[in-house]
């Protein structure tokens, strides 16, 4: 076998080149070892991910500022918006929390990426969030919230209002609330019918609220003291012509307030209650299935 002679200088040069290309190599002098493997692709990816305006980033930052209602829930973050919400050229993120119930435990916030981290901006932390959500309009944030009208519960508010948040140079400020959807229409009528024409009511005449149902005939009579009388059977409906008459129809979601009573038209039927005096809050729900007393 033929042998080749390689100059020592070439061996030394080759060794240095290979060492320099290795992640771990010995530096010249004192035999010090320098490890370049610490800047792994995984660490770099994690750092880049933390800079992103994303749902994962929003959850982490919202938890830090105690703005998440249920961090372990199926979908703890609602909206995530990215934009220059903290002024021209800013890198900002707005996010909202979700709440599995209708109670105002959720929150929303606006954050800016500065000095390697996301921080809440002045005027950007909102821990109470009885809202329908946030959206963006250019570099502004639009917040929508419910309006609860008299007689409505916090979970069944029917009105909607909105306001616009903008950056004034030093903090996030809100414009005035504007009503964009009103609540139920209120009428003041003695006689009303349901949209299905199955229920007919006389409200306030002779100091009572009286409703009858054509299907499975039955009726309910309510006094201002809250006394309820229920009748079942064909004899409870004295005049079937009432259901096909020209009596005004009370649309679903609307209500009739008359002579101390309130009757609300819903798809489940008519709910009539006393709104003042000794019988306040007492009443009945009537539909094709029967009559049920409410406000006991």
Description of the structure:
The protein is mainly beta and 296 residues long. Helix content is 12%, strand content 41%. The protein folds into two domains: 51-181, no CATH class; 186-294, no CATH class.
* Annotation field: number of helices: 3
Shape: elongated
Structural class: mainly beta
Portion in helices? 10-25%
What key phrases describe this protein's structure?
elongated; disordered N terminus; single chain; 3 helices; 5-stranded antiparallel sheet; 6-stranded mixed sheet; 2 domains; mainly beta; 296 residues
Topology:
Layout: H1 8-21, E1 24-26, E2 33-35, H2 41-51, H3 55-64, E3 77-83, E4 92-97, E5 108-114, E6 117-126, E7 131-137, E8 140-147, E9 159-167, E10 172-174, E11 178-181, E12 186-187, E13 191-193, E14 199-203, E15 208-213, E16 218-223, E17 228-232, E18 255-258, E19 261-266, E20 269-274, E21 283-287, E22 290-294
Parallel strand pairs: 12-18
Antiparallel strand pairs: 1-2, 3-4, 4-5, 5-6, 7-8, 8-9, 9-10, 9-11, 13-14, 14-15, 15-16, 16-17, 18-19, 19-20, 20-21, 21-22
Task: Kindly summarize this structure in a few lines.
The protein is mainly β. The protein has helices at 8-21, 41-51, 55-64, and strands at 24-26, 33-35, 77-83, 92-97, 108-114, 117-126, 131-137, 140-147, 159-167, 172-174, 178-181, 186-187, 191-193, 199-203, 208-213, 218-223, 228-232, 255-258, 261-266, 269-274, 283-287, 290-294. It has 2 domains: 51-181, no CATH class; 186-294, no CATH class.
């Amino acid at each position: 076998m033929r042998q080749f002679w390689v100059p020592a200088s070439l061996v030394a040069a080759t060794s240095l080149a290979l060492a320099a290309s290795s992640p771990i190599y010995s530096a010249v002098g004192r035999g010090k070892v320098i490890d370049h493997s610490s800047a792994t692709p995984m660490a770099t990816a994690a750092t880049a991910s933390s800079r992103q305006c994303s749902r994962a980033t929003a959850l982490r930052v919202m938890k830090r500022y105690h703005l998440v209602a249920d961090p372990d829930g199926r979908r703890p973050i609602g909206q995530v918006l990215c934009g220059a919400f903290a002024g021209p050229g800013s890198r900002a993120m707005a996010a909202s929390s979700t709440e599995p119930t209708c109670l105002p435990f959720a929150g929303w916030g606006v954050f800016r990426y500065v000095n390697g981290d996301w921080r809440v901006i002045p005027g950007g932390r909102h821990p109470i969030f009885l809202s329908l959500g946030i959206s963006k309009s250019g570099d502004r944030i639009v917040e929508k919230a419910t309006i609860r009208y008299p007689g409505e519960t916090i979970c069944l508010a029917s009105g909607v209002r909105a306001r616009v948040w903008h950056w004034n140079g030093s903090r996030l400020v809100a414009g005035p609330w504007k009503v964009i959807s009103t609540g139920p229409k209120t009428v003041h009528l003695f006689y009303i019918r349901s949209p299905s024409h199955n229920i007919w009511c006389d409200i306030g005449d002779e100091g009572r609220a009286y409703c009858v149902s054509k299907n499975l005939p039955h009726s309910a009579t309510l006094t201002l003291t809250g006394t309820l009388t229920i009748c079942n059977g064909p004899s409870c409906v004295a005049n079937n012509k009432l259901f096909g008459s020209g009596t005004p129809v009370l649309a679903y979601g609307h209500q009739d307030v008359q002579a101390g009573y309130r009757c609300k038209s819903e798809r489940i039927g008519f709910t009539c209650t006393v709104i003042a005096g000794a019988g306040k809050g007492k009443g009945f729900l009537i539909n094709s299935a029967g009559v049920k007393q409410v406000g006991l």
